[in-house]
Structure formats: C-alpha cells, structure tokens
Amino acid sequence: MARRAFARTERLQKQIGEVVALVLRRESRDAALHDVVVTGCEVTRDLSYATIFYYLPERADRDQVTQALGRAAGFLRSRVGREIRARNTPELRFSYDESVATGLRVEEILQDIGPLPLPAEDEPADPADGAAGESEG
Q1: Is residue 137 in a domain?
Q2: Is residue 115 part of a domain?
Q3: What residue numbers bound the domain in which 33 lies?
Q4: Domains in the chain: how many in total?
Q5: Tens of pLDDT along 30-72?
Q6: Of 54, 44, 61, whose CA–CA distance to 5 is shortest?
C-alpha cells in the first residue's frame, strides 16, 4: 500500500516546481534552459532532495540542457530557498520526463488508426455480449 504524502510535502513539491519553472523561463541566462517545461516535482520524506521532472520540445538538445541544468542547480536552489518556507532548502536533482513523449507517441498512433466504426444498432457491441444471457451448464 502506497503512503499518502503529507500536505506539507505536497505543498512544497508544488511550490518548488513552480519556482523552478518560473526561474528557468524568466531569469536563466542560459538560452538552452528557456525551453525546459517542468512537469512535476517529488521531494524526499526528509525534505533533503527534490527531483524536478522536465520535458523538452523536439528542437532542444537534451545533452546540452542536461549540462545546463547541472550548472544552474545551485542558482535554482538559492532561488527556491528564498521563495519557500522551509528550514532547509532541498538539493535539486533533475530527471527527464519520458511520459510526455510516450503520451505524444500514443496519441499519434491513435490518430493514425482513425476512429473505430460504431456497431449497427441490431448487432451487439461485443460478440461475447450475445452469449452473456446464456447460463453455463
């Protein structure tokens, strides 16, 4: 059974993600970081680490952005520390979020397949439905 995060942890995760996203977009000197889209944040239970999940548009160079995020981590941590109310500011780690790209690929495949034909009104929607009323015996 998964443990539910505390309200404080959830609040910090949201705040940290928002601060990092804003700072990357508005204050970063490195142009490679302006296209980074922050998709989420997870904070460890002891609040010592925060993993920032991010996504990049296709035109961005992933290796270049990864290096730039590593260089900017200290600056981002200091900005997060100024904005959130916490005794300690978590160390920031960055992780590329594959789920967005996967979702886009699934959507593209579904569009290629096209809409499925609807069954006629006199036909059951599923061939197994016709036998549903019969008892096993």
Answers
A1: no
A2: no
A3: 7-97
A4: 1
A5: 888 988 999 999 999 888 999 999 998 877 788 899 999 999 9
A6: 44
In a domain, 119, yes or no: no
| Run of H or E including 37 | strand 37-43
Which residues fall within 8 angstroms of residue 100, CB to CB, at 6 or more apart? 37, 39, 55
On whether the CB atoms of residues 15 and 84 are closer than 8 A, the answer is yes
* pTM for the structure as a whole: 0.72
CA 75 – CA 66 distance, rounded (Å): 15
Cβ-contact 82, 76 below 8 angstroms: no
Q: Which amino acid is at 85?
A: R
* CATH number for position 64: 3.30.300.20
DSSP state of 118: P
Is 124 part of a structural domain of the chain? Answer: no
By DSSP bridging, strand 49-55 and strand 91-96 are parallel
